[in-house]
Design a protein that fits this description.
The chain has no helices and 11 strands. It has 131 residues and is mainly β. Strands 2, 4, 5, 6, 9, 10 and 11 form a 7-stranded mixed beta sheet that branches. A 4-stranded antiparallel beta sheet has the order 1-3-8-7, with no helix packed on it. A hairpin with a 4-residue loop joins β7 and β8.
Length: 131
């Protein structure tokens, strides 16, 4: 069992920045590829960013590329999402998710962009960007 707890959400004006954190517990964090997703009211959950378990590979949705940055600290069991130049359309509940990729060495640099590929999810943190 893995527990994921997000924090760092809030209300920010257009053009502002926020840094989301997701702390994992229950298993060795370095086993997991991690991802961030978001869900706005009335919309499906969508991929935002992903990072491999060694942090060597990252991937972003086109809508956030150049504005958001995902990173991780395996000593602190934490994955981060730095969000800059925020826009009203970034308003959503943001979720972190984990996938155990330790079953094979070749997955050390793998990342995943589909929600169904992840095993565990946090409860989400609200991000609201005012215009």
């Amino acid at each position: 069992q893995v527990q994921l707890v997000e924090s760092g959400g809030g209300l920010v004006q257009t053009g502002g920045s926020l840094r989301l954190s997701c702390v994992a517990s229950g298993r060795t964090f370095s086993r997991f590829a991690m991802g961030w997703f978001r869900q706005a009211p009335g919309r499906e959950r969508e991929f935002v960013a992903a990072i491999s378990r060694n942090g060597g590979s990252v991937h972003y949705a086109d809508s956030v590329k150049g504005r958001f940055a995902i990173s991780r600290d395996n000593r602190e069991n934490t994955v981060y999402l730095q969000m800059n130049s925020l826009k009203p359309e970034d308003t959503a509940v943001y979720y972190c998710a984990s996938r155990d990729t330790s079953y094979a060495s070749y997955t050390v640099t793998s990342y995943y962009t589909e929600a169904g590929q992840y095993d565990y999810w946090g409860q989400g943190t609200q991000v609201t960007v005012s215009s």
